[in-house]
Amino acid sequence: MAISSPLLLSLFVLVLPIVPNSLAQSNSNITLGSTLTPVGGTTSWPSPSGDFAFGFRPLDTDPNLFLLAIWFDKIPNKTTVWYPGGTQPVQPVQSGSKLQFTSDGYLSLVDQAGQEVWTGGTSSTVTYAAMLDTGNFVLANSDGSFSWRSFDHPSDTVLPSQVLGLGSVLQARLMDTNYSAGRFILNVQQDGNLVFYPVVQPSGYSYDPYWASSTVGNGTQLVYNETGSIYLALANGKNFQVVSAGSKPMSMFYQRATLDPDGVLRQYVYPKNGTNRGWSVVDLQPPDICQAMFTKTGSGVCGFNSFCKLNGNQSVDCECPPHYSFLDPSRKYKGCMPNFPVQNCYAEGTEADQGLFDMVELKNVDWPLADYEHYQPLSNDLCRNNCLSDCFCAVVVYNDQDCWKKKLPMSNGKVGNYVQRTLLIKVPKGNTSQIQPTMSKKNDKKTWILVGSVLLGSSAFVNLLLISIIIFISFYPSHMRRNEKPGPDPSTIGLGLRCFTYGELEKATNGFSEEVGSGASGVVYKGYLHGEGDTCIAVKKIDKVLRETEKEFAVEMQTIGKTHHKNLVRLLGYCNEGKERLLVYEFMSNRSLTEFLFKGPRPDWNRRVQIALGVARGLLYLHEECSTQIIHCDIKPQNILLDGNFVAKISDFGLAKLLKTDQTQTNTGIRGTRGYVAPEWFRNLGITSKVDVYSFGVILLEIICCRRNVEAEIEDEEKAILTYWVNDCYREGKVELVVDGDEEAMADMKRVEKFVTVALWCVQEEPSLRPTMLKVTQMLDGATDVPMLPEPSYNFNLVR
């Protein structure tokens, strides 16, 4: 239904309940003082047509418990559409309870012990109640207005003619047969954005959203109109479609939309012609919850260690991997556990345990998080054996010499043809009882340790000896070790980083003779680690480290050392000797994105696409997936390097705290590099990860167009600045101009248009309007739709 103006929409919303109200008054008014009871007497109040009823329903799981509810009364399964409590639903009551429509004009639910457990309405001017044919139960005043409506206090379902204002929430139930607060909510936020959130129970804390309308400042209310369309009405007079029943008229079908226990808003229809075909799904949002859900906290759609699978009937199924079973088969959302003793981590038992486990291959499945180590290059066999010898490792992902190790518990699992992953999961060999002896050995060892400790504590001589040794060890470093080589910093132990001496790196680089790059943070030299397969390395000499950050160098190394991702340049080690600060990286043979894009013939379009996706995934990892969030602050083509296979890798991440302020400023006093700097730097606003999103948007345009962000030789400013020109082409419907002469890109215009739109979203002036890198990657990958760009007149202008 098209809404031409906010005024017309308001009139429509006001008129909807009035028509059924007059029908209710003439047919089924409920008088003050009326009472409902679960058994005996009156148990429900029907609507005039009998389509709906309000009252007590026995639970399918326990007929001795009763739920106060509204339901479809003419269909066999009496589907519930409302129950009291919202985000804090009222628990079912026993027989002996009652609902009173009090003489003061409000509803009071009293349990069998006489305790009031819920109330509805508070107005003293109420004269009657009515169950309307819309499914709306109301308390009405003498003038026909409503002082309370069930439509204003939804549970998990909305019905045709229902409108949810700003601040309204749908709370999924825990299970189809359990009306406790579930794990997902739909929130019509006060800021105008319609957002789906996973929540943790019983606290109700919201995790990262998995779907949003992106209508901040524009949305006004969620409307389910009588043609079967559910949309978010916008302040500019337009509608944002959420779901629609299409050609399923209300005259022939019952309709409802329910936020189901798996977090999906499904729109259902049921034929009124008497055939018991059950409810069928006509539309849903999001279309594939398994792909939409990606939360760095929490388990995802299914529980930990399980996989989410979307079936052909649009339902979600949760599956366990081989040799795992559900913690509770009746509540699969609780996840899976290994049905065998996991590998023993006790030092003396590790080798014995290795021979008791094997790796089983799983295709088209993935747990995208839970990585804790990444190796490259590594063969398939070494990757497999590395996991078998690591007691923490439960799964490895192997892809093109990249090996990622994952540990329990694992989240956001998914399975489907769209998942281009092959996993190797650790499972027991043969009879799992073989694993038990090692565990017994561990317990025996603990016993000996306990006995030894008692004997040791009883010996004064041994105690004196221990004290002497401790004093000697404490004295020795300060007097005897001054001339030794600097060893690894304790804070980097376990990170896989090597602590080099300055002499080692001077030799490896032949006296720092071959310079391969330079930037604000220092000069980069090429070198070789001789005797170690002649590994080619890049050594960065960091200039002018801040005095106050010298003490933080090891801490920063610890942060950088924990970052392992295919699209990040890998840090191999460092030197922290005297005033020298050097970083040792893997060498990128195809140099930087600058040389790739601007210093030769136009590169292959498909290769550019993969580079763009790689940069996006690298930034997503830095922002949301590594243990400590890293905001790069200087994303530019010079900091995007390409390996021998042209895989894009981000460099210079995590260095912001190590550098002098003037090392990362332009002559404008702003950190970053001119042309890639987000507008908030100029407005002294708080800096967030959105500054990297802005820079990525500029780089994405450069990748698409194969031209620099600023072409000084072009006199026309609108064409000289890439973001201005591409924005004008987009607004004029001439996106093909940005890839003019590029036959490969011209043949893939759908992707070009998508990439351009995403890039323009990234360079929005207002940081809150820019998508997160998670949203960016989802849009670029095609996992979610790319919304239309807002009109410039609506204060969404690109910075100029």
UniProtKB/TrEMBL annotation:
Record localization: Membrane
InterPro entries assigned to the protein according to its UniProt record, in alphabetical order: Bulb-type_lectin_dom, Bulb-type_lectin_dom_sf, G-type_lectin_kinases/EP1-like, Kinase-like_dom_sf, Prot_kinase_dom, Protein_kinase_ATP_BS, Ser/Thr_kinase_AS, SRK-like_kinase
Catalytic activity: L-threonyl-[protein] + ATP = O-phospho-L-threonyl-[protein] + ADP + H(+); L-seryl-[protein] + ATP = O-phospho-L-seryl-[protein] + ADP + H(+)
Binding residue positions for ATP: 541
Residue ranges of domain Bulb-type lectin in the record: 21-152
Keywords: ATP-binding, Disulfide bond, EGF-like domain, Glycoprotein, Kinase, Lectin, Membrane, Nucleotide-binding, Receptor, Serine/threonine-protein kinase, Signal, Transferase, Transmembrane, Transmembrane helix
Transmembrane segments: 448-476
Region forming the signal peptide: 1-24
Membrane topology: Single-pass type I membrane protein
UniProt-listed Enzyme Commission number(s): 2.7.11.1
GO CC aspect terms: membrane
Main location: membrane
GO BP term, pick one: response to other organism
The protein's enzyme class: transferase
GO MF annotations, alphabetized: ATP binding; carbohydrate binding; protein serine/threonine kinase activity
UniProt keyword annotation of Signal present: yes
All residue ranges annotated as the Protein kinase domain in the record: 510-789
Similarity comment: family membership: Belongs to the protein kinase superfamily. Ser/Thr protein kinase family.
Protein name from the UniProt record: Receptor-like serine/threonine-protein kinase
